[in-house]
Amino acid sequence: MKVNIKYPKSKCAYCGKEYTKTHNRQTYCSDKCRKHARQEKRRIYDSQYYYRNRKRIHQRRKGTPTIGPTPNPNVEREAEIVRKEVERIGLHIF
């Protein structure tokens, strides 16, 4: 058996237009307002994330494509990697 519940009029959280709710958790008057509100929240979150993490985002990675930022614990292997990278780049070591 379906029960008809009458919800009071409410204001849309995005556009402020008055509307009648169809269920108790509804906060936006339409799907369009809901989608726009979600986009706006996402824009704000992305902006805050960028300003909190801008140093990490723009930090340049150390090393080259084959030599990473941390040295290889095996010294002989690290020397071989460096030698190959120097040859690949075309540097001449005195």
Describe the protein.
- The chain has 94 residues and is mainly alpha-helical.
- It folds into 2 domains: 50 residues, no CATH class; 34 residues, no CATH class.
- The protein is built from 2 helices and 2 strands; from the N terminus they run E-E-H-H.
- Strands 1-2 form a two-stranded antiparallel ribbon.
- It starts with 8 loop residues before the first strand and ends in a 5-residue tail after the last helix.
Give a topology summary.
Elements: E1 9-11, E2 18-20, H1 31-58, H2 75-89
Helix content percent band: 40-55%
Number of domains: 2
Number of beta strands: 2
Shape category: rod-shaped
By secondary-structure content and strand pairing, the structural class works out as: mainly alpha
Enumerate the spans where pLDDT stays under 50 for 5 or more consecutive residues: none
Main β-sheet description: 2 strands, antiparallel
In short:
The chain is mainly alpha-helical.
Question: What labels describe this entry?
Answer:
94 residues, mainly alpha, 2 domains, two-stranded antiparallel sheet, 2 helices, 46% helix, 6% strand
